[in-house]
Amino acid sequence: MQRITILIHCEDQKSIIATVTNYIAAINGNIIYLDQHVDADENVFFMRLECEFSAKDWNLESIKSHFETHLANPFNMNWEIYPQEQKPKMALFISKYDHCLYDILGRYSAGELNLEIPLIISNHEDLRSVADRFEIPFEYVPFTKEIKAQGEQQQLDLLAKHQIDFVVLARYMQIITPQLIAAYKNNIINIHHSFLPAFPGAKPYHSAFKRGVKIIGATSHYVTEELDEGPIIEQDITRVSHSHSIEDFIMKGRDLERMVLARAIQLHAERKTIVYNNKTVVFS
Amino acid sequence: MQRITILIHCEDQKSIIATVTNYIAAINGNIIYLDQHVDADENVFFMRLECEFSAKDWNLESIKSHFETHLANPFNMNWEIYPQEQKPKMALFISKYDHCLYDILGRYSAGELNLEIPLIISNHEDLRSVADRFEIPFEYVPFTKEIKAQGEQQQLDLLAKHQIDFVVLARYMQIITPQLIAAYKNNIINIHHSFLPAFPGAKPYHSAFKRGVKIIGATSHYVTEELDEGPIIEQDITRVSHSHSIEDFIMKGRDLERMVLARAIQLHAERKTIVYNNKTVVFS
Amino acid sequence: MQRITILIHCEDQKSIIATVTNYIAAINGNIIYLDQHVDADENVFFMRLECEFSAKDWNLESIKSHFETHLANPFNMNWEIYPQEQKPKMALFISKYDHCLYDILGRYSAGELNLEIPLIISNHEDLRSVADRFEIPFEYVPFTKEIKAQGEQQQLDLLAKHQIDFVVLARYMQIITPQLIAAYKNNIINIHHSFLPAFPGAKPYHSAFKRGVKIIGATSHYVTEELDEGPIIEQDITRVSHSHSIEDFIMKGRDLERMVLARAIQLHAERKTIVYNNKTVVFS
Amino acid sequence: MQRITILIHCEDQKSIIATVTNYIAAINGNIIYLDQHVDADENVFFMRLECEFSAKDWNLESIKSHFETHLANPFNMNWEIYPQEQKPKMALFISKYDHCLYDILGRYSAGELNLEIPLIISNHEDLRSVADRFEIPFEYVPFTKEIKAQGEQQQLDLLAKHQIDFVVLARYMQIITPQLIAAYKNNIINIHHSFLPAFPGAKPYHSAFKRGVKIIGATSHYVTEELDEGPIIEQDITRVSHSHSIEDFIMKGRDLERMVLARAIQLHAERKTIVYNNKTVVFS
């Protein structure tokens, strides 16, 4: 049996679900998971479906082709079909902070992440030893305003060479260039250390401390050209009090960053997110 | 347009979703919500579907009749169809604790609950004035071991007279008799003041205090003959510490009880729960 | 035995705790609770202390007088001493939203709030019947930009007449005038329906929906002249998803507003808050 | 300046705080943190105090000696004084589960844990490579019922040799012998994968799944001879639904186990816990 995941979004129309599920029935497929959502304001239909079918009787390429002709085109769908055994390839961008890096590589080594990590890129040499420890290829790509074009080209070349599907900024402290954003649209995930839209930009824990908030948070989002304004994938918070210093905020925040980023990576790798209108539909 | 909610569960079989959604398409219905779940261990399929159709063109009774013949019977479904404009009728059973009562009646008066409350039954006269304040009929039904049969009969008569659909025990401090449980199977909701299965039975806050737990909880569940062992609808917790006394546990617990019970009532009233195998499927 | 609560803040200096606790020992007092905090950046010391002493042997006024001369003055303290049997008097300001009102009056009637509510002021007549239901005096005080001075004077007169200690804005939809803010400095509590500083101002649920956040929140704070920028007392959040409409946000938010405001009221009434530097110290 | 942490518990008596803080004042010490708790039922006083004093003028050993004679003895205190620069030495006991191990070693390598890890003991060879990766000495100590006495002796010898202060069972799947428990009383920390007292013993996720709970949890506690009944240090929970399989419970639970165990380790290492009456006082 072969398992596939189907993601669809299109204008809301009658009979979409019936048509899709009829097709699954027609190939003797078994629906394992189906969730759908209608954005009533925008009149958009979203669906995620997992099913399995006999790989002997049905060929994935012919299924895709049939799906395109007889379902996607008539309904004018945006659609993707992924075989579940195909693990996406993730590159990590890092700088000097190591807590998210250790967390991701620990989870990866423990077999929790359904993906491959063939590449780590950093604008500093500091964390090479951590990459070595986990035996992940580490590439030092210097990046400053002055050598932006050169840095960007190196990044793009490395990503292409390693056939990277998506990029995770694990507290990477440099801007991502528009060309890279365009090349990996909705495929670059950042972790920001506040509950956005509060405290965008630099030093959010300091701002949170100054404001005297009683909760701090972290936000994982897809990167767009507007800093910290991309579609939010996942957020979480923790309580703080007057008794916590900025250092305590930072330390507690590290736990949030780790957890929120790990969840976002997992959701993306399992194809549970669809981006629409600068927001995400996140299937459970 | 008429809106209906359809709840289904049956043995998992191919083409159920296709068949049901084809039928909705056939009556020119528009699916507003569809969620399904398969219990892989038990091989049971569950679905909740909301749709709207033209009340001019299609009659609810004929839809039910067609559904039974052409869908429910062939697939051997357990099924229910509810028109959404029909609000369920809820009776409250209370004793002397008033916090859940005030909360429910406050929400009801503020228009948050999609139901009617034609009846409050209590085994004490103490809270009659609260019922009066909110203008809800209050019936005093004494209940002790000695007069169990008589009390039960009075309860059943009052529930029948007011055409009650479901019963909520808002910290009612007497046992519910097997006959009443049978008459309102999966339609009696209790709030227990612990995160079950921890601390069943009497005085859970005292037991929690003695054990030195760092979280306390509340659990709302359907009542079955086994005390505190019915299908769980909703649970929540709050943190406690050594600095909290038993009185603090009780006071913090009141907030949990209110909130968890209110959510369970809402879920039940919106037909979002299906009971199977002493567990609940709770659609979001 | 008489129980008192002592609140202190002053420049951090050596021997403050020793001096205060020596004094309690000198009047044969028993310390029931002591918590202290030092703001290291600002070099400010904060302390909350509960103790009991023999009311036969020691008189509260003479204690206060002694405390002032021998402790507060030498250390240049800001200080307050409250007898615990003296319940603070709270006024509610409301408009048309009734959910926080029902919640507060329900808790009050259930005996959960350690305060008195001798007065409700509203700029609309709509909720008079709710006040009547709970037998709380209700005063209609019209308030618009045009009659601001007159409205403010009526408010101040009513607050004075009822000897109000603090004011709670339970979704009151008018601005509070600078004169009222000055008269009740750090004694006016507002509930804002977002996790501030995100989404200040009007329609925060709409903004949150548009931004696609995965958590929404509520914030209770003391009112200052800067809208939604006063010292935060309490915040809480709940998770939302793409499947929730703005109406769902609003309904889930009502639960947050109720809960967060109730906690802030409780903290203030039990004298557990000290305001400093536009932030709060909140003792547990 | 030298910083010390003082932990005290004893029968509640008048003037304890005054006496202790007078002493700190007498050595020109500066109190950085003071928190106290009175267990009113048991009449026990608990205090944690951090202070700094001039290491030139005052010697730690003479302070301890003075403290014992003039404070601890008169009040019959249980007491400990720790210099903060002295990091406790922690041994990890592991079996085959690696997720907590990766998490702890990642945090340790990232400099988040204020302790040293000179030793990992395992009853299997499987995770030696992880220990090697982080360059922590790994000792294989076979342990089965048949060779219990021998295994225990090896464990005790290794702990003694490495001057271990406390032991963490990071999903170690063997019982701890009474002699080891006695040797490290209140110094062996376990992580159990349920919110105790619910689901003690084996396979708690399976039991939770069967019961249909809506929250699952993890509990970190000190090990006593009664399985899963020792003093609880920290607990946390996460929400689950009918849509989660047992495998999902296990995967979500791993995050809880990691987080709860890491917090308990941190609390213990910073000497923030006092055990009394099979419960913990956990200072914030």
TrEMBL record, chains A, B, C, D:
Gene3D superfamilies: 3.30.70.260, Formyl transferase, N-terminal domain. SUPFAM superfamilies: ACT-like, Formyltransferase. Keywords: Hydrolase, One-carbon metabolism, Purine biosynthesis. Pathway: Purine metabolism; IMP biosynthesis via de novo pathway; formate from 10-formyl-5,6,7,8-tetrahydrofolate: step 1/1. Residues 89-265 form the Formyl transferase N-terminal domain. Catalyzes the hydrolysis of 10-formyltetrahydrofolate (formyl-FH4) to formate and tetrahydrofolate (FH4). HAMAP family: PurU. This is Formyltetrahydrofolate deformylase. The gene is purU.
